[in-house]
Structures are given as structure tokens and as C-alpha cells.
Amino acid sequence: MTAPVAFHEVLFPAPVAFGASGGPERRTDIVPLASGFESRNQRWADSRRRYDAGTGLRSLDDLAELVAFFEARRGRLIGFRFRDGLDDRSCLPSGLPGPLDQAIGIGTGALAVFVLAKTYGTGEAAWIRSIAKPVAGSVRVAVGGVEQTEGVHFTVDITTGLITFSPASIPADGATVTAGFRFHVPVRFDTDTLDIDVAGFLAGQVPSVPLVEIRP
């Protein structure tokens, strides 16, 4: 029997995702010292998102859709796209992505491929997050502040987040390349078992449906 691919380019049911809870997770070791001070060590260079989709379930139809989606992903085996309602675009949640939102690189006159990214914070404390699952049709790109045209000046791989400029449109040396976009989070189920009590659900008990980000 042929093994399924490790990732399906499908979106987790939107109505359930809208009510899900969760956000970024980091790992930090903290060691108290005899002096009363403490030593802190960052175990992960990048954060990892975790969600509980159980809080987004509202009806038996939602439950049935969730079970079907879970089975099609074979539990934890296959990843999928998830929309984080708080953090799904290059700008603030209330805004529309624009071509100047995020700096993604500097031209060299020869470099044709750039990776979509989103920067959190400013200065030395800033953290840059690679964006691997942009939403089709949402990506806007500018070079030196001038917006480019998708399909003419550049192409977007929505499965990797790579921007590739055509030979005639490769950014000049020193030109700032920026982008705006919407994106999904690549995740998988973090359980191989859905423990759902229908009677309990109807009585207001919310099952736990853990999801965890797959790092690109």
C-alpha cells in the first residue's frame, strides 16, 4: 500500500478554526543560582504555535466535519493548513496586506529567489519568522518601493513561500525587496485519538483537539 504524502495543501475547517484557542510556544531553561540570581537558556531559536481546536466546535455538524478531516489526515500522520485568526497576515489583523509591509531581502543584481518572512519586534530584539504557506492570490511584492506584478515580474510558490523573479526583473544590487501577504500555519494533529462524548458535548463539555505547528 502506498504511503500518503506528509502534507496536504488543504485548510482546516474555517468555522472550527475561528473559535480555536492557542498561540506561540517557546522553550526556556531557567536555573536558580545559589546567589539568588538565575540563569536562562533559550532551547529553541524559533517559536512553535500550538492550538486547541476543540474550543471552536459549536455543533454536531462541526464534530462530524472534524472527524472526517481527522480521518483524511490519518491522525498525526499528515500535516495541513490552519488559519490563525489573530496572526494570519503581514500587517495588523484589521488591515489589508500591502507590498511594503515586510522586508524580505536586499537585491544583489543576481539573486532571483527570496523567502517570504514576517518580522516581530524591532532592532536587535526582532525575530524573523519564515512564511511557508502564503494564501494564493494574496501576495504583493515591491522592489525599491515600486510594486511588481505577479506572473510578469515574479511568481509565488504557495507551498514553500518562495518568491522567484523573472530574469528581466531580478532586483538590482542594494534594492530593498518587500512583500505583503496573508498566510496559513502548517500544522498537524497532536493526537492519534479523538475522544468525543456526544452527550457530554451537547451538555457543554468541550473535547480537546490539539494541533501543533510543523516547522518549515
TrEMBL record:
Pfam families the UniProt entry points to = DUF2460
Q: What's the domain of life for this entry?
A: Bacteria
Q: Which residues form the DUF2460 domain?
A: 8-215
* The name this protein goes by in its record: DUF2460 domain-containing protein
Q: What is the lineage of its organism?
A: Bacteria, Pseudomonadati, Pseudomonadota, Alphaproteobacteria, Hyphomicrobiales
